[in-house]
Specification:
It contains 13 helices and 11 strands. The protein is an alpha+beta fold. The chain is elongated and about 90 Å long.
Amino acid sequence: MIVGRKSLILKIIVDEYIAKVMPVASKAIADSYDLEISPATIRNDMVYLEQEGYVTRPHSSSGCIPTDKAYRHYVELIGENIELPLVEQYLVRELFREAREEIEQSLREAAVWLAHFVHNMAIITLPKPDQHRLKHIELIALQDFVALLILVLYRAKVGQQILTFERKVTQDELTSLTNKLNARYSGMTEGEISASKSGLFPEEERATECLIEMMAAEDKMEHGKAYLEGLRLMLSQPEFASGPRMLDILEVLERESWLGDVLCLNLSDDVKVIIGKENSEEALQDLSLIVSQYGLPYKARGIIGVIGPKRMNYAKAISSVNCLSSVLSKSTAGYM
């Protein structure tokens, strides 16, 4: 890792490129910064940085452009525990101070605010419990042997599944079965239901098996419903003026599994910065992701993050994710 003057010059290069999206020349650094060193010394340091893979040049006579390695060094310099200025922290906390009755509306508003604040794409997922608990089910007759099972979990999670029986079942019988299963299983996890399903009649067992399968599938999901805002803001950046690159990014983001594919890592309450080729998804390797968890440990956790070009304002993105993660964690407590 570089230190001293070379580290300072690299930070200046990154700052200038973030601000202007243009190769940074040694003369521009000498003219704009009072470093008390000659332009020749700056040029020599930039040659060293190029040899070490921190910067690259579009052509031999041009200025320097930061590489992924430079951005990683830059993030390590500024740290990942940056805080927003106190005034902005106050505004964020006031904006989301009132707990909404609808958590989904609150998270959607938070994603919109974050996207516009950092002028990039923001993502916030609904808090996902480690294990879902059953609120209630409904069984609705569709045909003589077929019913629709509607599953309602706590935190407003709803699913449905077609269920078949070996004999004709009326709606009155399904209503009776619904009441019995709700009285028996309400408030239980998938594991608790599995452990208590003995001594059931065939229709009860069939409905219970379907219920267990649906809850197990929900528990295996890597994250809750995602709210994505600011895609237009991100794609309006100069880096994405090229059509094919934009289409590749859109193709990835249209996949429901993209977030789990990209975040194939163990997140914590600390912000994690994923830069360029550190992304497992090739189409996103022109981007950086700043992500963190929020919520209540061992109860329900969600993901909050910023996605944008490698040339982004890391200090602003990291500090805003830190602040909003803290605010949403406190808000989440009101929904648990």
